[in-house]
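explain this:
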Amino acid sequence: MTKKERREPSLIESLIPVLFLIVFLAMNVFVFGDESLSGSNQIVLIISGAFAALVASRSGLGWKELRKGIVKTINAALPSILILLIIGSLAGAWLISGIVPAMIYYGLKIIHPTIFLFAACIVSAIISLATGSSWSTVATLGVAMMGIGATLGYHVGLVGGAIISGAYFGDKMSPLSDTTNLAPAMAGTDLFTHIRYMTITTVPSMSISLIIFLVIGFWTDTSGTTTNMEEVLAAIEGSFNINLILFIVPGLVIFLIIKKVSPLPALLAGTLLGVVFALIFQPDIIHNVSGIANDKIKSFYVGIMKAMYTTISIETSNAQVNELLTTGGMGGMLNTIWLIISAMIFGGIMDAAGFLRRIAKSIISYANSTGSLIGSTAGSCIFFNVTASDQYLAIVVPGRMFASTFEERNLAPENLSRTLEDSGTVTSVLVPWNTCGAYMSSVLGVATLTYLPYCFFNIISPFMTVLFGYLGIKIKKLVEPQGENNSGLADL
């Protein structure tokens, strides 16, 4: 075909690469299981991108045009990639400084039998918010909480639902989370604007969930012991210098965010101040990380650098705590960055070929209002969680599909990024064959369909975002109609 013969792709041609990706990805997850996130999914995305390029050639599209599309999408994701690298170093600095352990320590203090479900949800949220990982939160503290909950007489599915609800609240609201960085990159907004805008729907969803857990707790006759929690507290207290002064660092970062300081400077300031606090409060931890005993200056330098660029683990007297106090530094972010770049290759080709626009056009033809547009977006995210078995794809593909439509409808990109997280991130754990659902079921020892009815936050979130869309509540516009300010959200 010559360039003059270029034509608009048909709906069938546009759907073929998506179906190819879904089938290939489902097979890949079946073969590799949880390990599919370690690289095989990335390869699937790249191969699917190559397949999409072959299909695109039928429409008269040349490689140079497709390559421009790839470069364009990767360039759009570069700010998030840089933030992910800084976040990796910040996580390491906050670990060796005792900031993350202090958050865990004081969070565990609120556990009480009567309010166990409420507290389990809150503590999981705090730890996940601090670490940016629902998976590590569930694999460590979650396992301990499952044992305590069973001892207190709570249904295993109910305990699992409380832990997962809190963990996913923290995951989707934490600047350390990969999905929280990915969603705004897909929509075309920045990280902290995305987080601030998510609070509009996330806080009500979480509040309803907490009320439900609290009511259930008060109506349940509980008895048992908190021995496991005491062991965790003792292990943290015996290894770190735990004090409230450590909260100055996260407090400063929050202050900078409120003051609308750009993400990179704010996170870098938090990283460097975390290093200073590590030198002041946790010198022994730094020496242990470095592995150098005879040169104090070199030990400090090596320990701090390792914390920021590679995987480190703090050894305590408790094996569960040891698993929790682990971070990958900047190096730990490379798989996520690899995934983003691979997704951008597929998305860039799909976008340049006009496939996404063609699919979106068919879906959008049924979305005549803001509410139906947001509902279509949420439904697409859930569809990809079910069919593609991957939460990242559930964010990337709908994000690329609907970005231009939201702009054409005069809707700010944070409306899209919020919908992607409210429906893509949180529902992944509700699908048994999704990597998230399979992982949580395996770690907690509870079948996905057993804890699913009690994951109140994960169930409520997509309904909340669609409800706000249909009611027109807090829907930010790119250009506000004269005489309207949408409740001041234009300034968010």
Summary: The radius of gyration is 23 Å.
